[in-house]
Amino acid sequence: MALRGYEPVGSFQYFRRHSEVSVYRSGVSRPVAVLVGGGLVGLVGYRSCVRWSGSLGEWVRRERLLVAFLAACAAVVGAGVALGLAQLAVVGAVVAAVGALAKVVVVRGAVKVEGSQERAKARRHLRAPVGAVAGVVPTDIGIDPAVQAILPGGQRPEYVERSKDAELREALSAAVTARGPRVVVVRGPSKVGKSRSLFEALLRSVGDGWSPQFVAPVDGEAVTAILTPGEDPTVDAGQAVLWLDDLEPFLNSGVTLRTLNEWNAVADGRVVVATYGGKGSSQVADEWGSTLTSTAQEVLQHAAVVTLAETTGGEVEGLRSQLGSRDMAAVERHGLAAFLIAGPLLEGKLNDRRHDPGDPESPEGVACVHAVVDWARCGRTDPIPIPVLRELWASRCPAADKATFDDALRWGLKPVAGSIALLTKVADGIEPFDYVVRLVTQDSEVSAPTDEYWDAAIGTAESDIALVVGERAYEQDRLEFAGQAFRKAARSDVSQTAAIGGYNTGVVLGVLGRSDEEIAAYDGVVARFGDDTEPAVRERVAGALFNKGVTLGLLGRSDEEIAVYDGVVARFGDDTEPAVRERVAGALFNKGVTLGVLGRSDEEIAVYDGVVARFGDDTEPAVRERVAGALFNKGVRLGVLGRSDE
User: Fold this and answer.
1) Once rounded to an integer, what is the mean pLDDT over residues 113-135?
2) Is the pLDDT of residue 249 over 70?
3) Which of 76, 180, 288, 322 is the most exposed place for a label (fewest CB within 10 A)?
4) pLDDT tens by residue, 420-471
5) CB-based contact 633:593 (threshold 8 Å)
6) Taking a C-beta distance cutoff of 8 angstroms, is the pair 267, 238 a contact?
7) Is the pLDDT of residue 626 over 70?
8) Which residue has better confidence, 84 or 562?
9) Which helix (H) or strand (E) holds 432?
């Protein structure tokens, strides 16, 4: 039938006139044959152009081709209906149906590829597949395989009970039931058995209503992905344990206490377990008093920390009947964990400068190992890039050439047993075996990292890592380098990193006696973060104000000092964070001391009374100390005033 109100012209008119001639005895008209033939040619061409297996992009291209093909079929069907060609409409509909089925196949293939990509992405995020604790392969999650065969069990030797096992299991029990901190950290130097003891404690804690998924991310980015809804579908919202073996690199890549709290808040029965102290770490801020601060300090302050040292004679005494006297002496010297993973062989190669007895010495190889170790001693927990290593090694071996460096690096990478070597090559560069860092650090004859190492460590560091480099420089009394690193961290876009960096910059400047710059650094922290609501950042702001008051007092600017302390109380007086309350109590206490020095005794006593009234029932040890100090100082002042009965 003709289109109403429209007279066909041109090519369409020609098609309309000449489309009625039958060409097949079956009754199929010429246009029908053309359509069927064209459809088959299109499908054959589609099949030849696009493979039936491949990437997600290929499946998307197939879908686009099919959509275009189905649109053409729909147009032909519409034309057939409009022109009264029933066969054309029917065959077009059949071809369209076949195409639609093909599209289902294409979409199914695309979904399958997407699923495979998601699973591959999840595998890249994790050290081991998510599953029950009992199904975890220990060597997949950071527990070094044993290369000694003195105990039954092969690469996973029979576990030797440790004196801290009961304490560790109780900490885990308290975490699971929320009776204690839900972050449990085993702390100690490298290769003392931290990871193995923690894993064994987990195995014994499963049951009695706690059957967690075991989740072991590879890095800080993976932790973020796991916490992002839909980013990692392999982790559900139920009971789970987050395994962070070697906590330091996670902290350096942006994992904070808040991150760990977000993980635990998802469901009851969620906990975080970690080891700390193996990646070149030595001390954190709780051992420096209340001056310098770090991201590790905040996590450790809010965690149940179990400290593990080398195995004691009592712990390994039961092995004496299984070991020869030489092996037993090595266990007692290095500790069982280090002995099992070839600690003596590593130490022997490093000290003798020979890979095997009778080999020529390789001082260049030892220099290469020390260069990598010094990178770690400067706080760099990430691998050292080979170009940077080559440059630093050349400062130790100035007369050597490129070929010598290559030989020296191969010497350090050559395993002493199994896959264990002094150095390990990873995608981003070279890293030391952490027990080697411990050996070098404990050697009193090894000098500290030189200026070249500090310059390289700071110059190539991102802001989070610069914070750690600053802490290491501060520990080693390299204050100028510490200041450089902290100033770099203070420029971070991450508020917590920047606040800590600014605060620590002020601390270092104070130690250097540059008081005006110190005060300016503290003012910068307050100006930038004074309105921040993040607890860790508020703590830094309160600390900056408190330290500014102390510095003003040392400069004899007492009125300004008192005004700053009043500002601390006004800004943070109602804060519930323990660390911030400590600063408020400290500000009030110091204000009382300063008023006493100024001879304003009645005001001094009133301030001490305020400390007791505000914090008398506080349970935080540092705050209780201020309350006791206020009462003590009040008694002293009353004695000076001759008010003996009071």
Assistant:
1) 70
2) yes
3) 322
4) 899 999 988 999 998 999 999 988 899 999 999 999 999 999 998 999 999 9
5) yes
6) yes
7) yes
8) 562
9) strand 429-432
In the prediction, which pLDDT does 92 show?
Answer: 56
Residues sharing a CB contact under 8 Å with residue 314, sequence separation 6 or more, in sequence order: 163
Cβ neighbours, 10 Å, residue 160: 19
DSSP letters, 79-117, are HHHHHT-HHHHHHHHHHHHHHHHHHHHHHHHHHHHHHHH
Residue showing tokens 């147009």: 75
CA 580, CA 609: separation in Å to the nearest integer? 20
* Cβ partners under 8 Å of residue 193, min gap 6: 162, 308, 311, 335, 336, 337
Q: Evaluate if residue 85 carries a pLDDT over 60.
A: no
Secondary structure class of 272 (helix, strand, coil): strand
Residue by residue, DSSP assigns 385-399 as PHHHHHHHHHHH-TT
Residues 456, 180: Cα–Cα separation, whole Å: 42
Phi, psi of 230 (to 5 degrees): 85, -15
CA angle 185, 191, 196 (to 5 degrees): 55
- Cα separation, 159 vs 197, whole angstroms: 8
Beta bridge partners of 274: 185, 244
Rounded to a whole number of angstroms, the CA Rg of the chain reads 35
Residue-level pLDDT at 11: 33
Which of 447, 440, 452 is CA-nearest to residue 391?
452
Work out the number of other CB atoms within 10 angstroms of the CB of residue 365: 25
The angle, 0 to 180 degrees and rounded to 10, between the axes of the packed helices 495-511 and 479-490 is: 150
Percent of the chain with pLDDT over 90: 55
Q: Is residue 248 exposed (0-12), middle (13-18) or buried (19+ Cβ within 10 Å)?
A: buried
Confidence of residue 153 (pLDDT cuts 50, 70, 90): confident
The full 3-state SS of 226-263, as one line of letters, equals HHCCCCCCCCCCCCEEEEECCHHHHHHCCCCHHHHHHH
The two three-digit tokens of residue 137, written as one number: 């392969």
Query: What proportion of the chain, given as a percentage, has pLDDT over 70?
Result: 78
